[in-house]
Amino acid sequence: MSAETDKQGRLYIPKGVREKYGERYHIVTYEDRIELIPVADDPLAAVRAAAGELRDASVEEIREDIEDEAEAEARSEGGR
Q1: Exposed (0-12), middle (13-18) or buried (19+): which is 49, by Cβ within 10 Å?
Q2: Per-residue confidence at 54, pLDDT binned at 50, 70, 90?
């Protein structure tokens, strides 16, 4: 999908994209590109949904999960 800006620099976002991602976006600039990141209507609810099962986990449980994953990854890379 591509789009062009108008003479005032406005960018038209197609209806299907707006319906899927919403009307508000953060503009993130990089050296070679830009990205539009949708802004949730309720950012706190979005963070809670993204956290999923971690929301109720203790810091120690999260730390153990990270260590277990790192150890498993190190073992699988060592066997290459």
Answers
A1: exposed
A2: low
